Amino acid sequence: MSNSSIAQPEQSLGSLAVQIPGATAVFRKLKLDFCCGGQQSLNDACASKQLDVNTVLDEIRALQEQSPPPDAPDTTSLIAHILQRFHEVHRQQLPELIRMARRVEAVHREHPDVPRGLADHLEDMEEELLEHMAKEEQILFPMLLAGGNPMVVHPIGMMRHEHLGHGAQLEKLAALARQHKAPAGACNTWRALYAGTARLTDDLIEHIHLENNRLFPAFERPAQH
């Protein structure tokens, strides 16, 4: 997603839901109807619920911020970035995507393009990712933060292997979500779902890249001498 256009109060709930992955969770929490009432502007919707539009905007705009990894980072700052920008985000993304996928599969079950099996696949991804991230947080990252040791190549090797599995899961996700392109006339929930699966894909690819190509190599090289 491009961050060139920042969320504005005049935008409709429906357009914000589709353009900004994660906005649906904000709207749902505040009981703002982005699906059937999606044509209403954020300004009007907040006014009708006596909500402060600037507070809501701040929450939505925070979803648009993509903090870059630190330049030439030390291990501590790179791991902190991975934990905040990816581990925390994945834990927020997946439950909302699963909820929306279940809804789309149920409401549009007669539609020829309905993504049958998408919610189940997202649940499988969530289960594997949570287990993978827990291993990094509890075992690997503490070892790296302590400076590493000759044995660290083994858990790194396991994480690299699991990353290959995540890549295969993303390929299946793209197939189930029809390359993240909603059919003509799709409702806001369906369009927001595919915006979210596209965002998850981008985030997970970047997450794996940072670990495989920036974090891990510094601790693998000593073992090669």
UniProtKB/TrEMBL annotation:
Q: Which domain of life is it from?
A: Bacteria
| Key words, A-Z | Cytoplasm, Iron, Metal-binding
Q: Which residues form the Hemerythrin-like domain?
A: 79-218
Location(s), subcellular: Cytoplasm
Stored PANTHER family: IRON-SULFUR CLUSTER REPAIR PROTEIN YTFE
Q: What is the name of the protein in this document?
A: Iron-sulfur cluster repair protein YtfE
Query: What is the species of this protein?
Result: Piscinibacterium candidicorallinum
